[in-house]
Amino acid sequence: MSENNLDFVKEMFILMNQENLGYIYRGKFNQEITDNILKLTETNLQRQEEQSRVKKRIYSIMVEGLQNITRHQDDASDVEKKEESLGIFVIQKVDNLYFITTGNIVENDAIPHLKALIEKINGFNKEELKAYYKQVLSDGSLSDKGGAGLGLIDMARKSGNKLFYRFREVDPVHSYFYLHTVPITDDYSVDEKKITNTLMKINTVHHTLNNENILLVFNGEFNQESSINLLSGIKGHITTSKSLKNKLFYVVVEMLQNIVKHGSKLESSEENPGIFTICETENQYLLIAGNFIQNNYAEKLADKLNRINTYSPAELEENYSKILFDFNVDDEKKSGLGFIDMRLKSGGALLNFSLSDFNDSLTFFVLKISVPKS
């Protein structure tokens, strides 16, 4: 990732909003990470007051999909392009449907069998699929490892819909397998072309994630509740030392609070829309947030950040204390306190930022902070 090029953040924000992409995790999957993804999604479903039947379907499909990624991630140990070896989980809401996408590496030799199995599953009606599930369950004719087995059958049963999929070759031995599951209710007509198009768009987003070493993306409206849920999930996603995890956590808190308290709304939004990502390189984590601000504040914000970037460690401490203990401080200075704290908590890292026009009243503000691993 270029240190100064933050254009991809705005581009990804726009694309994710166009495709209603809310939450993406890319990386190694384990039980703690899986549990956090499930918990974060369950909380969001409760907040949106989804019917219990719909929630149960979505949750069951997610469990199977996440287990499938975990089960097959060891197959990626010898992939030529290491950035392609990581699994991916995506959830999006389009109209009244939830689209659940998982992705993982498979060996090319396994593709014909996997395709045949999915097409066979897609060819069954509801009763035939139920009978096939019982048959496989009783005679063990499919192994979980070799053919994705009962998991794929059960995902089709729970979704009440076909399984949508795509293979993308990664090297002569491996391909990336995307599985797109869309649970439906009995009275909902499925637009298969629309579903297929959303899968292609996720491919585009995945390409950016690989290029920029992005582990996690949260896109949506930010408030105190969503920030708390996201923080809970982040703690589980970052697998590093306790001291580094705490340092990252404190910086993330300040970045999310900045969006909640100082971001601006669109006419169509109830809360402050924005995007938050965590990227990882060999030596550091990169925390990036993007949100709207009013045009008339952009120049003032740039001056403030440039000034804070000139502070020495001693000046950071001095200005932090000065603002903290000034009980008459206004909101504008409070935001300065947060930016100073970000530099302090990150070990003195500079605040890398960009400001770009969005419309007649709003500017899109991107802030990036690097936190060294050592």
Structure description:
This protein is α+β, with helices and mostly antiparallel strands. The chain has two domains: 21-212, Heat Shock Protein 90; 253-372, 2-Layer Sandwich (Heat Shock Protein 90), CATH 3.30.565. It contains 13 helices and ten strands. The protein has helices spanning 7-18, 31-47, 52-72, 111-122, 126-139, 144-147, 149-159, 192-211, 224-237, 242-262, 295-309, 313-324, 331-345, and strands spanning 21-27, 87-94, 97-107, 163-169, 174-181, 214-222, 272-280, 284-294, 352-357, 362-372. Strands 4-5-3-2-1-6-7-8-10-9 form a ten-stranded antiparallel beta sheet, sandwiched between helices. A hairpin with a 4-residue loop joins strand 9 and strand 10 (362-372). Helix 9 runs antiparallel to helix 10 (242-262). The longest helix has 21 residues, at 52-72. The chain is elongated and about 70 Å long. The relative contact order is 0.12. Mean pLDDT is 86; it is low at 144-148.
Structural class computed from helices and strand pairing:
alpha+beta
CATH fold category name of the largest domain: Heat Shock Protein 90
- The radius of gyration is 22 Å
Give the proportion of residues in helices: 40-55%
What is the annotated CATH architecture of the largest domain?
2-Layer Sandwich
* pLDDT < 50 runs, ≥5 residues: 144-148
The string of secondary-structure elements, in order, is: HEHHEEHHHHEEHEHHEEHHHEE
Helical segment count: 13
Beta-strand share of residues:
15-25%
Please state the average pLDDT score: 86
